[in-house]
Amino acid sequence: MKKAILIVSFGTTHEDARKVTIDEIEEKIKNTFADYDIRRAFTSHIILRVLKNRDNVHVDTPEEALEKLKIEGYNEVVVQPLHVIPGVEFDYINNVVNRYKECKAFNNIVIGRPLICFKGEEAGVPDDYSIMVDALSKQLPLMDTVILMGHGTNHIANAVYCCFESVLRDRGFNNVHVATVEGYPTLDRVIPNVTAQNISEVTLMPLLLVAGDHAKNDMAGDAEGSWKSILEAKGFKVKIYMHGLGENSDVQDIYIQHINDVINEKFKNVGKTHKGN
């Protein structure tokens, strides 16, 4: 019986950031699931092209990785996304997995859930939001006001960011705010809430797996449009926490748990039973 875990992330062109996030998570998964072979795929085709053209490095797409596993005779495959929310990239991976299910390429192929998925309102279902707050709390400074930078999306899953901020409030983190680069809430929406706290200093922190382009440039860069520059222009002293979520050992353990959950077929029917409006 040949078994594999395919670890799929958006990817990054920043080797330094990849080594301390994606590489570390893959190594922890490899050490935890010793009877599985570990494979890698990226979902960003732009990143894949950059790596190929700049570094002559080939990383598989999810389709390429699964096709290789099929040809090599693997029987069981677990696909674990390293994405933060169940948005466009997760839909992409899920659609690919479903195609391989339909053609019965493997005896069994399953997909784990991303970092923040279930709210845990049903009995026995985990509260991924609170679990994530617990993991994040180890890196949140106790007294500082923090603005978390999420990616954002036009996908319906963008609602995760507002829900996550609500859970932060429920847990007493009134000084932590969530904004996104490409969705809502925006930084412009968050700044008045920060200003209302009558503070002069904020910490910018990525709510991203990898502290890559968005963290280094959009968040902490010196260009006029970066979050750091915008906040400094408004009179704030800005501190930078330049570490992706993937560097947090508790976040790494969440992905381990999600793999265990899907291997053990836990929560596979959550959300599939219609209960009315």
Write the layout of secondary structure elements.
Blueprint: E1 3-9, H1 15-19, H2 22-32, E2 37-42, H3 45-55, H4 62-71, E3 76-81, H5 88-102, E4 108-111, H6 128-137, E5 145-150, H7 159-170, E6 176-180, H8 187-195, E7 201-206, H9 213-219, H10 227-233, E8 237-240, H11 249-263
Parallel strand pairs: 1-2, 1-3, 3-4, 5-6, 5-7, 7-8
Helix pairs in contact: 2-11, 6-11
Task: Walk me through the structure.
- The protein contains eleven helices and eight strands.
- The protein has a four-stranded parallel β-sheet with strand order 2-1-3-4, with helices on both faces. Strands 6-5-7-8 form a four-stranded parallel β-sheet.
- The protein is α/β, with parallel strands linked by helices.
Structure described in brief:
This protein is of the alpha/beta class. The protein has helices at 15-19, 22-32, 45-55, 62-71, 88-102, 128-137, 159-170, 187-195, 213-219, 227-233, 249-263, and strands at residues 3-9, 37-42, 76-81, 108-111, 145-150, 176-180, 201-206, 237-240.
Radius of gyration: 19 Å
How would you describe the shape? Answer: globular
Helix content: 40-55%
Strand order of the largest sheet: 2-1-3-4
The residue ranges in which pLDDT falls below 50 over 5 or more consecutive positions are 273-277
Summing up helix and strand content along with how strands pair, one would put the structural category as alpha/beta
Enumerate how many helices there are, as a single number: 11
Tell me how many strands there are.
Answer: 8
